[in-house]
Amino acid sequence: MTNTTQQLFSIISIVIVGMLFAPLPCSAQRTPTISHITQEQIKDIGSTVELECSVQYAKDYSVLWIKAGDKPVFLSTGSTLVIKDSRFSLRHDPNSSTFKLQIKDIQETDAGVYQCQVVISVVTSVTGDVKLSVRRPPVISDNSTQSLVVTEGSSVQMECYAGGYPTPTISWRRENNAILPTDSATYVGNILKINSVKKEHRGTYYCVADNGVSKGDRRNINLEVEFAPVVSIPRPRLGQALQYDMDLECHIEAYPPPAVVWTKDDIVLSNNQHYAISHFATADEFTDSTLRVITIEKRQYGDYSFQYGPPACGQAYFGGAGYLAASSIILAAVILASMFSS
């Protein structure tokens, strides 16, 4: 090897060694990273939250706060707040390279994912996410059951759904704490099902949604049960003297309320100088009917029938047509009648 060759080899070796041990450009030394970001936050409406994002090796890069979603909203870039909302503020600590995004008077619409993003290039970025959840009181949904009318013996289910955060718990109760068809005072679940409805199941049911926020929400669901009439006669045999009044009473339990007719000797009675008929229906499907016999005459002694049938509006809810005889009420005063007939 000649001296010239040796010198050239030595120069190349020195250059290679120098390249190997030379310091790299600053921009290629480290990739920016997010060293700390706030964990998930759960806040009440009207409160304040502060989201922190600390970055490393990002001096020469843009750091953004973005509210993620289908339509992302850019909130800040670097130490500058972009969004024009007085509830938002931004603080930048250059010593720790921390970017603090504060939101005051939190609203329900503020819930979502907030993203701290370090933009490295057009296609490259480093991100960290913070989920902000906002507690919301329960609101029972419109697709919940309103009210129901069912036939005795059929199956029925009442449904109740509610929005809110945390997810509300749905429970059921009956008016006056009556026992539910589940044989308990309360039932937890979105659907309350009754496999075979009885007339005793009719009434008001309460769907209650609760998640510990505010007072919760409640919906009243009225369950009506169509059932065949049940008739009772408080006093089936009565006596009264001539020239006095007498009230004949009949008690009927049915839904819908039946049409009521009083007859004597197959003749339908109506209000006149001899008779006064009154009906009183209560909210719990009971109907009381009273026939007042005014200033009794001898010819008014005898059998009186109380008849019921489909409601006057024409809605039939039990088999058969026309009116059904319920029972007979006998108006007789044997001793008094014999006295006045002599």
From TrEMBL:
Residues 32-127, 138-224, 229-305 form the Ig-like domain. InterPro entries: Ig-like_dom, Ig-like_dom_sf, Ig-like_fold, Ig_I-set, Ig_sub, Ig_sub2, Ig_V-set, Neural/epithelial_adhesion. It holds the Pfam family Ig_3. GO terms for cellular component: neuron projection; plasma membrane. PROSITE patterns: IG_LIKE. The chain crosses the membrane at residues 316-340. Keywords: Cell membrane, Disulfide bond, Glycoprotein, Immunoglobulin domain, Membrane, Repeat, Signal, Transmembrane, Transmembrane helix. SMART domains: IG (SM00409), IGc2 (SM00408), IGv (SM00406). SUPFAM superfamilies: Immunoglobulin (SSF48726). Its main location: membrane. Residues 1-28 form the signal peptide. Gene3D superfamilies: Immunoglobulins. It is found in: Cell membrane. It comes from the Eukaryota. This is Ig-like domain-containing protein. It comes from Hermetia illucens.
